[in-house]
């Protein structure tokens, strides 16, 4: 894994405004509140967070599916934000998306062969015969029988559909694959198959992954580095092993402590830190640190001063005034 | 934790050879194929399985909540010694909600949107007790407080959509416990919730179980939830029980190849797994269940004898449905652990 | 809620304005239609036609004529008919309104009761014989054109079986309820039933579909798990949620009918309501009357839409908060 930076996001902000409840007002909902991160070539960066934290919106902003409200996204050194659709097109081949819902992300009216071939046809990658050959190869690569080309999505199981989605994402030989909850809708055993497949493909094809999920176990399994999101911000970022063993941010610590875990060894379980309340509304953000209303160790300072994401160790950053487990 | 099967007098629920089948145009679908389990007093039994395992259908059919005209249910379900399978709707109504409470998966759609939460709790109370409206309302406020809803006196008059997912689930729990049921059945109660909310809800359920003394049957696909909550666990595959036993035993000394696969496939939070164990193939279609062991087509250790359906056997309370001998199992597991360590 | 209502009102006014312009253009700006020639009569010479044109202001530019007509209609209230010169239009409409109202109100009561009962019974007995039976009657009622049904009813009650079974049925026409309530109801009986048939069919079918959907919802499963009786679940949970869409539907239908959409029924049964007036004025191309009838009808449709929107918020608590 070289240290080359494939994707760099700087202060990405995405907000949505809608009509407010009072006449003449508009309510602004900030889904992504200033995210900066880098994805290095060949690595898997995992983004983990609960529902509403903005991770899916972030994924769409990075891949330029949704225009950002402010901030920049660079891919291989080229700034993508602000480019016209035409200029953006050639870059799209390099970044592809795998979606969460295997039942909704495949067009039910197209054969699966067409679904995988379409990206190649759109970008005029090769002649039709060559494209068909490539589709067959892709099917084999993801573990599907190439004779299934002419079938329709509804004839396949969830796990198989997800493989088709992966095949589609690989059709243009991207450097970066952004996977937005790719296994959440699958059974445990099928999930394992797809995760193994994705790991194999990464080795075979020299892929870089941005892996977004809410399942902490899945994220740990696939990621080299992990970023934890809360209410549209990255609150902690760092090497996966260290982050899971010694989390810095109180939110990460609490999250890890309450995941129900298999008790198959006598290893001491983490002390449970229960966070009270619910995630606040992104249109009504708390002052200062976004987490302070629910944080077990919040002080006066946390209500007024917003902590920035700072690097406090090699490859470890946290946005907190009182990081934990720093020893 | 009892090591002998629960004596009849102590069992809140005793299910014997429950079979549920649907006749469809494509053939007979055997959704549940011979489930037997006991739930003792104050016990938490977990039923774990993937989609198509029949875990939810089994519970729903016991309570008569399967409304399909093409369903056939056989077997015996004794609730507090009384046979409840085959009872008419009218006979079941006092049991449902009054003696057996149920919690469902999706809190966002579980409550009727046009009535306040208080109204819905009061409705249940008045259906099973002779409380007056005023008494029922007071009790509803008490229940909301018990499940941790802040400001229950005013929240009792709010509509379901004014609550978040976690809060709605608390309301559903309050409703299910309102008539002090002996048994609580929870079908994937936290699957639709975030990890932090899930923790709150599971915590709440444990606490309330202590207060009310009810037994719980919790249905889930998440082994972690089982580990947190269950005293005993039933692993289901293709409508059949694959393994039954005390939770700690099943998790630490699993006997059935499917359980091995299931446990190995879960990515861990507390340790990095090298590579996840996969069960080859995909789940079978319920129309195509093979004669003999249902898991055989996907089992790496399949033998000739597997063309006969294995019986549930084992020592004491830990049983499974597999023809492998104890020696064979030990050999397989040792080899697997060695492989895992070397990779 | 207030902001929402104000917005609805403003958009309602805009819609009415657009309708008035559209109708005006259709009738007054269509090439080949020369109101002056019609008014002057067939044997009129070109000079007389020109004279008539000038008298009625038909030689003024279009926008001016529009403004003038609107002024006569809404401000001065003295719009006069072309067909019967000098006869004021507005009083004609106002005279016709109670007839339409009587017809629609009576029919509405019948169709709501029959439709809801039909839908509930069909849903409660889904799969059993009575369910498809009710649905069959429903679709039969929907498929039969109102004028045909009306004429057949007339045929049976007024001529074929008039001397025997239906001798008590009065001749067609309208009797004011003020002068003789019994006769009023008797005259309206068959018109009520004819008009109600169509709508009862629709409502029964729609309600049944909504109820069957509702009965598969999660909250009904919860209600069952609570140990409630099937009847209570149907009436208190499923029906209450399904009624929301029925009520909206009713509001729109009622509004349209009050405005004169029961035209065919009124004509067939000889009831001098707004629909009948519209029909007559269309036949003679009496444009001011047409304009007045259309605006009258449009007003009620627009009003009904607005009321239904507001009512929806009242019935479905989820919608309230979004305001």
Main attributes of the structure:
heterotrimer, A: 327 residues, alpha/beta, eight-stranded mixed β-sheet, four-stranded antiparallel β-sheet, B: 343 residues, 12 strands, globular
Your description of this structure?
In chain A, 30% of the residues lie in helices and 24% in strands. Chain A is built from 10 helices and 12 strands. In chain A, the strands form 2 sheets. In chain A, strands 6-7-8-3-9-10-12-11 form an 8-stranded mixed β-sheet, sandwiched between helices. In chain A, strands 2-1-4-5 form a 4-stranded antiparallel β-sheet. In chain A, β7, α6 and β8 form a beta-alpha-beta unit. The radius of gyration of chain A is 21 Å and the shape is globular. The two termini of chain A are 29 Å apart. The mean pLDDT of chain A is 90. With 343 residues, chain B is α/β, with parallel strands linked by helices. In chain B, 33% of the residues lie in helices and 23% in strands. Chain B contains 11 helices and 12 strands. In chain B, the strands form 2 sheets. In chain B, strands 6-7-8-3-9-10-12-11 form an 8-stranded mixed β-sheet, sandwiched between helices. Chain B has a 4-stranded antiparallel β-sheet with strand order 2-1-4-5, covered by helices on one side. In chain B, β4 and β5 form a beta hairpin. In chain B, α3 packs across α4, α4 crosses α6 and α6 packs parallel to α7. Chain C is built from 14 helices and no strands. The mean pLDDT of chain C is 84. Classes of the chains: A alpha/beta (327), B alpha/beta (343), C mainly alpha (323). Chains in contact: A-B, A-C, B-C. Chains A and B meet through α6, α7, α8 and α9 of A and α7, α8, α9 and α10 of B.
């Amino acid at each position: 894994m070289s240290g080359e930076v494939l994707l760099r996001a700087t202060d990405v902000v995405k907000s949505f405004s809608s009509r407010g409840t009072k006449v003449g007002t508009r309510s602004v909902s900030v889904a992504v509140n200033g995210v900066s991160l880098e994805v290095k070539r060949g690595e898997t960066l995992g983004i983990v967070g609960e529902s509403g934290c903005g991770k899916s919106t972030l994924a769409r902003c990075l891949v330029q599916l949704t225009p950002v409200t402010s901030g920049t996204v660079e891919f291989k050194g080229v700034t993508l934000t602000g480019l016209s659709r035409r200029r953006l097109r050639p870059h799209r081949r390099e970044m592809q998306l795998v979606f969460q819902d295997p039942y909704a992300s495949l067009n039910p009216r197209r054969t699966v062969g067409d679904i995988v071939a379409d990206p190649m046809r759109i970008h005029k990658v090769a002649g039709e015969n060559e494209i068909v050959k490539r589709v067959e190869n892709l099917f084999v690569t993801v573990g599907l029988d190439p004779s299934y080309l002419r079938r329709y999505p509804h004839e396949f199981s969830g796990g198989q559909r997800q493989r088709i989605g992966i095949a589609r994402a690989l059709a243009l030989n991207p450097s970066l694959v952004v996977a937005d909850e790719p296994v959440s809708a699958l059974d445990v055993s099928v999930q394992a198959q797809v995760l193994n497949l994705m790991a194999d493909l990464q080795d075979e094809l020299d892929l870089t992954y941005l892996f977004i999920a809410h399942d902490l176990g899945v994220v740990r399994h696939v990621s080299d580095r992990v970023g934890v999101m809360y209410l549209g911000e990255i609150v902690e970022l760092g090497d996966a092993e260290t982050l899971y063993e010694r989390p810095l941010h109180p939110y990460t610590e609490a999250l890890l402590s309450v995941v129900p875990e298999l008790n198959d060894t006598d290893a001491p379980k983490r002390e449970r830190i229960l966070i009270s309340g619910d995630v606040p509304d992104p249109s009504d953000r708390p002052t200062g640190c976004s987490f302070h209303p629910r944080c077990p160790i919040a002080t006066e300072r946390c209500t007024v001063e917003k902590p920035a994401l700072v690097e406090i160790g090699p490859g470890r950053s946290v946005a907190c005034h009182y990081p934990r487990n720093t020893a | 934790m009892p090591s002998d099967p629960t004596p009849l007098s102590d069992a809140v629920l005793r299910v014997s050879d429950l079979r549920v089948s649907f006749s469809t145009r494509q053939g007979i679908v055997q959704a549940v194929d011979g489930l037997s389990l006991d739930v003792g007093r104050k016990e938490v039994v977990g039923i774990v399985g993937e989609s198509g395992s029949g875990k939810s259908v089994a519970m729903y059919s016991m309570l008569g909540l399967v409304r399909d005209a093409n369903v056939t249910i056989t077997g015996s379900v004794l609730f507090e010694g009384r046979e409840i399978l085959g009872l008419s709707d009218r006979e079941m109504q006092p049991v449902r909600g009054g003696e057996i409470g149920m919690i469902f998966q999706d809190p966002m759609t579980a409550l009727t949107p046009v009535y306040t939460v208080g109204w819905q709790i009061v409705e249940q109370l008045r259906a099973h007790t002779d409380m007056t409206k005023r008494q029922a309302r007071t009790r509803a406020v008490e229940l909301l407080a018990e499940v941790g809803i802040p400001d229950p006196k005013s929240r009792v008059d709010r509509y379901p959509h004014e609550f978040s997912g976690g809060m709605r689930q608390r309301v559903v729990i309050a409703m299910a416990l309102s008539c002090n049921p002996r048994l609580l059945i929870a079908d994937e109660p936290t699957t639709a919730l975030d990890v932090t909310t899930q923790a709150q809800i599971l915590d709440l359920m444990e606490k309330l179980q202590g207060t009310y003394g009810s037994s719980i049957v919790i249905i889930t696909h998440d082994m972690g939830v089982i580990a947190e909550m269950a005293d005993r666990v039933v692993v289901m595959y293709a409508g059949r029980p694959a393994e039954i036993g005390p939770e700690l035993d099943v998790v630490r000394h699993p006997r059935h190849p499917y359980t091995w696969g299931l446990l190995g496939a879960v990515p861990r939070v507390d340790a990095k797994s090298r590579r996840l164990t996969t069960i080859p193939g995909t789940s079978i279609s319920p129309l195509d269940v093979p004669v003999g062991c249902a898991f055989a087509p996907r089992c790496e250790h399949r033998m000739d004898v597997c063309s006969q359906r294995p019986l549930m056997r084992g020592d004491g309370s830990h049983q499974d449905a597999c023809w492998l001998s104890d020696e064979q199992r030990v050999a397989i597991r040792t080899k697997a652990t060695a492989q895992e360590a070397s990779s | 809620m207030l902001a929402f209502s104000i917005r609805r009102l403003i958009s309602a006014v805009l819609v009415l304005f657009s309708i008035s312009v559209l109708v005006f253009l259709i009738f007054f700006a269509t090439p080949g239609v020369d109101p002056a020639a019609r008014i002057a009569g067939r044997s009129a010479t070109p000079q007389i036609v020109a004279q008539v044109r000038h008298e009625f202001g038909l030689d003024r530019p279009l926008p001016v004529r529009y403004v003038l007509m609107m002024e006569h209609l809404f401000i001065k209230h003295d719009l006069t008919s072309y067909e019967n010169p000098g006869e004021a239009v507005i009083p004609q409409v106002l005279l016709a309104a109670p007839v339409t109202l009587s017809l629609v109100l009576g029919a509405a009561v019948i169709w709501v009761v029959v439709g809801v009962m039909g839908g509930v019974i069909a849903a409660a007995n889904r799969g059993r014989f009575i369910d498809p039976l009710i649905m069959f009657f429903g679709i039969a009622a929907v498929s039969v054109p109102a004028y045909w049904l009306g004429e057949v009813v007339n045929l049976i009650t007024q001529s074929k079986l008039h001397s025997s079974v239906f001798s008590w049925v009065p001749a067609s026409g309208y009797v004011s309820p003020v002068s003789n309530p019994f006769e009023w109801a008797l005259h309206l009986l068959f018109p009520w039933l004819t008009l109600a048939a169509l709508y009862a069919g629709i409502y029964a079918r729609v309600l049944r579909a909504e109820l069957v959907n509702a009965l598969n919802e999660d909250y009904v499963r919860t209600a069952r798990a609570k140990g409630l009786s099937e009847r209570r679940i149907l009436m208190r949970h499923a029906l209450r949620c399904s009624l929301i869409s029925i009520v909206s539907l009713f509001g729109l239908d009622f509004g349209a009918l009050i405005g004169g959409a029961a035209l065919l029924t009124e004509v067939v049964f000889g009831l001098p309501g707004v629909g009948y007036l519209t029909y007559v004025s269309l036949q003679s191309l009496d444009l001011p009357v047409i304009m007045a009838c259309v605006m009258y009808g449009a007003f009620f449709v627009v009003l009904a839409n607005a009321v239904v929107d507001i009512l929806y918020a009242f019935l479905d608590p989820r919608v309230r908060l979004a305001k």
